[in-house]
Amino acid sequence: MSKVKKGETPEITTIAAALNKTLNSYSIAEYEQCTLVNAILLALQDDHFRSHYGSQAFTKRSEPTPAKLAKSVVDAIKRVLQAHKVDNHRLDTLLSEYSTIRNKPWAKETKLKKRTAAHPEDNIVIQELTKILASQVLPLMQSAGKGQDIIGLFYNEFTRQARADRKTGVVLTPQHITEFFCEVVNLNKNDVVFDSCCGTGGFLVAAMKHLVSLAGTDEKKKNHIKQNQLVGIEKRTDLFTFAFSNLMINGGCKPHIYQGDSFSEESRKRVEKLKPTVALLNPPYDVGQEGQLRFIENALYCLEKGGRCAAIIQMSCATSLKDSVIAMKKRLLEKHTLKAVFSMPENLFYPVAVITCVMVFEAHKPHRKSDKTYFGYYKDDGFTHHKTLGRVDSGKWKNIKSQWVDNFKKGRNKTGLSVLRHVDAKDEWCIEAYMKTDYSALTEEDFIKSIKDHVIFQFSQGNETNEAHTTKKPL
Description:
The chain has 17 helices and 13 strands. It is of the alpha/beta class. It is globular and about 70 Å long.
């Protein structure tokens, strides 16, 4: 396995990049990499596995086989899940997904050929991966405190280069944005947080960290948060597995995360019984503009009256003038209040090219003619592109986030940043259509950037033909 230099940040992302490079050399697919890492991290929660992985079954003296190692991982996972008293239905689903690792070549064959090697070598993939995760990742998790989206970080790194999920509509929300959401909806320690398409559980991990922090030294409340205030639905079995284990690994949670269709009556009734007050979500983008808005509508339906919902979706959902999209926006406004729309950085989901916005609603309170929506031009989050690590914080995010949140909560009109305006279903829900430009501060570089941004924006709407409608953009 590739060595990781100490002191590099973010360290877990660096470790994931190194592991990805090595596992790729064994021709292990990206989705298999994440399942394997996820499985071992969960197995390491088992005392017996953690105390023995470096001795008996994992030493050359006992001549371990990949098959034995894979079986020991799955057996440990079963013990962990049973210790947490996971119900039989979810236990079977989780074990079925984790057991798939036992059927892979890297978990059965004693010799494995690397892409760069002329001949097969001893298969030590699971052995070495376990050592690295136990010695490098677990200490980082413990020192950083609970609440870091570990599985999401690995998943993002393992799929970043290959863009493996580009066609499936899966675009995981960056961790700094999931934390930003918690402040936007003003989470309090009694909130029950729901994600109807929870992916690897990033929003729920961020919410858990935020809620636990608000609980202070009240251990009873912290335990209640972990056992009762985190709710999720995920349709894909593999992502459901990642989300469930992510919450268990991070905070010892027994989350109310279920595998299934969040639009089904069964799922709705299950969620409503838990009385969620906040919804945080990033719906799949392959369902189209109306489909993404339906995810928001469905999440709002499950919330208590006055609940808050924040969702990050494609900008085209806010700007499209299609009759079907306008109809969906009208349905939303008839039952819920549109509190805010933030235009997000163009490269937020790098390397996936998608332009997004964040919509914030108040549930079960119709949007009145007197209601003004806050529109924010939140295009610069202070992150820069790193050649090997993707987007990384340049040290500006903390102050930028504070400014974004404070400006929204105080409802300020601020040139170049925000506008308060009443909108209806036929209007464009983005600040670019309404904000004023400070022309005195313009440069030639600003003009060139504006042209590029406009071309990218129109292309993202599918308006690359002469049918494109004009949207005002700040220079």
